Each structure stands twice: as C-alpha cells, then as structure tokens.
Amino acid sequence: MNITDYRPLKETKSHFDSDFLYNTYPCSIPLDFTEVPLHWHNEMELIYIKKGCMIVSVDLEYSVVNAGDIVVVMPGHIHSIIQNESDSCEYENILFNLDMLVSRQCDYDTVSFFNGISGFKGYCPPVISKTVPHYSDLIHYIDEADNICKYFPDGYRLKIRACLFNFFFELNAHFYTHTDMPVHLSDDKMDKLKLVLNYIEKNFARTISIEEIAQWCHFSQSHFMKFFKNCTGTSFITYLNDYRLIIAARILKTTTQPVIIVASDCGFDNISYFNRKFKEKYGVSPREFRK
C-alpha cells in the first residue's frame, strides 16, 4: 500500500480517470486515516478543507487549517497531514499533473509560468484562508471544477482545464510572487530528505538499519542521525516505526489479513513489539482497532 493513496476507506466511486491527469478524493480524519506522513510527488496538490480542522505541513512549515482554507502544494514539495488533537476534519484532495495544461503549442508566457512552478521558482503561500482578499476569486474555480466532477458531462475535460487556467490566473495575479520562497532547509538538504523519504516508502516492509540508510546517503551514521533529526524533529527509527504503523492501520481497516501478517508486511518481525507500539500510537490493540 502506498502512503499517498488518498482513497477513503468507504469510498466506492472511482475519481480517477486513467486518460486524464486530474483526480479528486473526498477524505475524512480520523475516519479514513489519522495522518499522512511526510511525502512528496511530482503532481500538484490542492487540499480544500470542507469541515473541521487539521494540521498540514508544506516544506516542514506546520499550520492549523480550518473549513474553507485551501492548501496549495506545488509539485515536488514535501508535505504531510496530521489530525489536530481529537478534532475531525473533512477535506477534498485534488491531484493533477501540470502537463495537462501545457502543450508544445502553448504560448511563451504559459510555458514559462508552469515551468517556473515545476522548477521551484517563485513563491505562493501554502495556506490561503477564506479571510484573505481575492479568496473568493480563487476558490470559485475549484468549486466550479468540483461541480463538473459530480456529473462528468460531455466536454468535462475542457471545463476542468478552463477552471484550472482561471485558478492559476487568479493565483498568479494575487498570491504568487516571482521572488524566492522562504527557505527552511537548503536545496541540498531538502533534496537529500526527499531521497530518504522515497527510500522509506520503497523499503519500509523490510529491516532498514541506520548503517544502511546512512551509507546510502553517503553520510556517517552520526551525521545521518543528526541530519534527519534536524530536518524532521524526530529520530529516524521513531519516524520509520511511525510510518509503518500508519500503513498497518490502513491495512487493518481495509483488509481481513491476520494481524501477524500485517505486522510482518509492515516491517515488524516481532508481533509483541508491533502490538505494543500500535497501542502506544492508537490507544487500542490492532484487533480492537479493526472492529
């Protein structure tokens, strides 16, 4: 299971069109999951808060977001989602590839703008609140695209593209600046962290030692442990265990696999250790969590 699989547990209707690079997923915290750990992808992502509140991070900057807020995650940026204490939250996750808006026949300004977004040039505030000026101009086009996605009428792809072009026009006019974005980590450190996150995603199901991951990063073990703690605020082992537990919780809710198999598939060789860590995180045993 991929940690970036946003499909909610009880969602039966597919929002994915394999021929069209625009996907929407209604999600709920904690019903579907309590968190999505640090990750990144090449698609652009919009997180539209419908009800309640939660915590999001973009490039390791954490914010509490509320109903109406929209989180703008540019391609390639590290981000995460976390439940805010015991609060619930309903939100829409919108993922799309910028390639759907750019063709070889596009004018120079259009190509330059989207290449700038993909190339980390310029800055857009990650959280746009409904209280800021021009919010209504921006969100109008997301609401319009959402409405089209309820029915998928003939020509819906044209309409969604039109909505996205209008969305980016408003974003560029009122929110996006062509100055460098605030830096929390240097580009080199951010790139290295992204590689580590990818490595975890691909290898979490097996044993990963500090020696292995440090060697893979061309760091000494002590340098790697300090680097990871400075970037994420937690140790590598703690982060890895937490990542595995999040995957395990998702599998427990979506399959009938025996707990011992789930534990093993998520990198826990010792079932007692898995049960103890799971209860520490979720307050109940894996079997109780599944009920």
Summarize the structure.
This protein has 291 residues and is α+β, with helices and mostly antiparallel strands.
As for the CATH topology of the largest domain, it is Jelly Rolls
Which architecture name of the largest domain does CATH use? Sandwich
Q: How are helices and strands ordered from N to C?
A: EEEEEEEHEHHHHHHHHH
Secondary structure category? alpha+beta
pLDDT < 50 runs, ≥5 residues: 6-16
Number of helices: 10
Helix content: 40-55%
Describe the global form.
globular
Number of strands: 8
Describe the largest sheet. 8 strands, antiparallel
Topology summary:
Layout: E1 22-29, E2 35-39, E3 44-58, E4 61-66, E5 70-73, E6 79-82, E7 89-96, H1 108-118, E8 127-128, H2 135-151, H3 156-174, H4 187-203, H5 210-216, H6 221-232, H7 236-254, H8 259-265, H9 271-282, H10 286-290
Antiparallel strand pairs: 1-7, 2-6, 3-4, 3-5, 3-6, 3-7, 5-8
Organism: Lachnospira eligens CAG:72
GO molecular function: DNA-binding transcription factor activity; sequence-specific DNA binding
Protein name: AraC family transcriptional regulator L-rhamnose operon transcriptional activator RhaR
